[in-house]
Specification:
- The protein is α+β, with helices and mostly antiparallel strands.
- It has one domain: GMP Synthetase, Chain A, domain 3 (2-Layer Sandwich), CATH 3.30.300.
- It has a 3-stranded mixed β-sheet with strand order 1-2-3, covered by helices on one side.
- The model has no long low-confidence stretch (mean pLDDT 94).
Length: 67
């Protein structure tokens, strides 16, 4: 089973965290990652309990660009 390219967490206090998870490529933006990120953001936006969204990257880079 492969790791998801976007990790999602929502805490009980309304804080959502989306983590770009392509560490082997320093989280470079791929079509797969962008599609999954858009889906995750849509789901977070529809959740009335979420007040804050934090977008971060796993590993040593946030997102250096695209490949």
């Amino acid at each position: 089973m492969t790791e998801p390219v976007v990790l999602r967490e929502v805490s009980s206090d309304g804080v959502a965290v989306l983590t770009l998870n392509r560490q082997q490529a320093m989280n470079a933006l791929s079509r797969e990652l962008l599609d999954e990120l858009a889906r995750a953001i849509d789901e977070i936006a529809a959740d009335v309990q979420v007040r804050v969204l934090i977008l971060t990257g796993a590993g040593r880079a946030f997102a250096p660009g695209s490949i």
